[in-house]
C-alpha cells in the first residue's frame, strides 16, 4: 500500500512541476471553458501515460473537473463553449471537449448538432474514442 501512495505522490509532484508551463500555455485560463480568475488544476487526459506528459495534460477549472468526474451531470447551454473548444489547437483540449460533447449529445440537441460538424485528425479521433467501452 505504501508503494502505491509513494507512486501517486511522485506523479502529483511531477504534475505540479508542470504547473508553470501549463499556466503559461493556458494564459492562466481553463483550457476548456476559458474561465479566468478561478482555481485551475492539471488534468491528465485518459488514457494516462506511464509518466506525466504536458501534451496530454490540460489546465481546467473546478467545475470542469467535476463534470469530467461525473459526466452524467453534464447539462445545459452553459457548456456551449465546448463547440468552440473542440476546434482548439491543443489536441488534449480537443479530445476532452469532444468527449464532453458526446456525453451532452445524449441529452442536448445543440450538442448533437455541434458534434455532427466536428472533424478531428485521425490520431486525435482515435485518442478521443479510446475511452469508449
Which class of secondary structure composition applies to the elements? mainly alpha
- The total tally of domains equals 1
Low-confidence sequence ranges: none
Element pattern in H and E: HHEEHHHHH
* Strand runs, count: 2
Overall spatial form: globular
Task: Quote the average pLDDT.
Answer: 90
CA distance, first residue to last residue: 29 Å
What is the helix fraction of residues, given as a range? 40-55%
Beta content: 5-15%
In short:
The protein is mostly helical and 133 residues long. The protein has helices at 2-17, 19-26, 62-69, 82-85, 91-104, 109-116, 122-129, and strands at 40-44, 57-61.
Explain what you see:
The protein is mainly α. It has one domain (2-129). The protein has seven helices and two strands. It has helices spanning 2-17, 19-26, 62-69, 82-85, 91-104, 109-116, 122-129, and strands at residues 40-44, 57-61. The protein has a two-stranded antiparallel sheet with strand order 1-2. The longest helix is centred in the first third of the chain and has 16 residues, at 2-17. The protein is globular, with a radius of gyration of 15 Å. The two termini are 29 Å apart.
